[in-house]
Design brief:
Blueprint: E1 2-9, E2 12-17, E3 22-27, H1 30-34, E4 43-49, E5 52-58, E6 64-65, E7 70-71, E8 75-81, H2 89-101, E9 105-111, H3 119-128, E10 132-134, H4 143-150, E11 154-158, H5 165-173, H6 182-188, E12 198-200, E13 206-208, E14 213-217, H7 254-260, H8 266-279, E15 292-295
Parallel strand pairs: 3-5, 8-9, 8-11, 9-10, 11-13
Antiparallel strand pairs: 1-2, 1-4, 2-3, 4-5, 6-7, 12-13, 14-15
Bound molecules: guanosine-5'-triphosphate, magnesium ion and zinc ion (ZN).
Length: about 300
């Protein structure tokens, strides 16, 4: 039987199997020998005998994030608050690039639109080619459209602490994930969300609640390939005068023409330049295979 690992606690893996049941499974010893540790999101083969389940095989992963370790993410919902905390477009752009480079669809959600007008921010990401949602999770506004989008996929949520990821997820799953106000968070000096689990949506699909992330690495991305992860640059990038144009200082650059015409947002282009300058200093031997996002717990 096949299934997806939705939770791991104390050496047991909880597998939602194709037959609709959840089985508590042990991993067979050979995983340790192979150096494969099952993680949530893994598609697994399991055997069930006399009520006891074991994971016998982990199917190849499409991608894997670290801290928390989770595999096979289809979409990353990048949540920003219209206000409180103030949106940070540079951070959002790094996340869109990191996701895309991992074969994860980046999706934008501007939350807390009851507190401030998020239209301008949303327009930037819509124009760049991302699916963009506007929500007021506190009052359940706009969350149905997001819920429809998540159906059938495995989705993670990312964004600064306090933007409303858990509140959004609660509204979507009807569950009771832990949320906290900012004063409580400051008092405890840590993030509100700590456990890691995939939550099944009625109608299919899974969502992962993650704490606010602390850092991520983009070492695997080459500077000259960075433009590929900016959808709004894709049609222009082949039309520059120079092959291998960095789209920063060369003349007759089709990307900068687009920027001048207002078809690429200033903030997005600034993020591109900032990331390009960091990535171009990375030597080939310093490159990792995978792009990682570290979510702090
Ligand atoms: N006004 C308003 N408040 C919201 C909205 N969404 C969430 N909040 C509040 O914002 C605070 C933080 O929300 P959480 O859902 O805990 O934020 P989080 O992103 O999960 O934070 P971490 O788990 O620390 O990463 C809570 O007090 C929520 O009630 C919204 O749309 N509007
Ligand atoms: Mg949370
Ligand atoms: Zn160019």
């Amino acid at each position: 039987m096949n299934g997806i690992i939705i939770k791991g606690i104390g050496g047991f893996y909880y597998v939602k199997a194709d037959d609709g049941h959840i089985y508590e499974c042990k991993a067979r010893g050979r995983f340790r020998k192979d150096g494969v540790t099952p993680i949530i999101g893994d598609n697994a083969e399991i055997e069930v005998r006399g009520g006891k389940g074991s994971v016998t095989r982990i199917l190849p992963r499409k991608n894997a994030l670290v801290r928390p370790a989770v595999a096979n993410i289809d979409a990353l919902v990048i949540v920003a608050a219209a206000a409180s905390p103030e949106p940070n477009p540079a951070l959002m752009d790094k996340l869109t690039v990191t996701a895309a480079a991992n074969d994860i669809e980046p999706v934008i959600c501007i939350n807390k639109i009851d507190l401030a007008d998020g239209e301008g921010l949303a327009a930037i990401y819509e124009a760049a080619g991302f699916k963009t949602f506007m929500t007021d999770a506190e009052h359940g506004k706009g969350t149905d459209a997001l819920k429809d989008f998540l159906r059938g996929a495995v989705t993670a949520f990312a964004g600064l602490s306090g933007v409303g990821k858990s509140t959004l997820l609660n509204s979507i799953t009807g569950g009771d994930l832990k949320t906290g106000d900012i004063s409580e968070r400051l008092r405890r000096g840590r993030h509100t969300t700590r456990h890691v689990e995939l939550f099944e949506l009625d109608g299919g699909g899974f969502v992962l609640d993650t704490p606010g992330f602390s850092s991520f690495e983009m070492n695997s991305i080459r500077a000259d390939e960075l433009w590929e992860y900016f959808p709004e640059m894709a049609d222009a990038a082949g039309k520059c005068r120079f092959r291998g144009c960095s789209h920063i200082s060369e003349p007759d650059c089709a990307v900068k023409d687009k920027l001048r015409r207002g078809e690429i947002a200033e903030s997005r282009y600034e993020s591109y330049v900032e990331m390009y300058n960091i990535l171009k200093e990375i030597k080939d031997w310093e490159r990792n295979d995978t792009v990682t996002i570290n979510f702090s717990g």
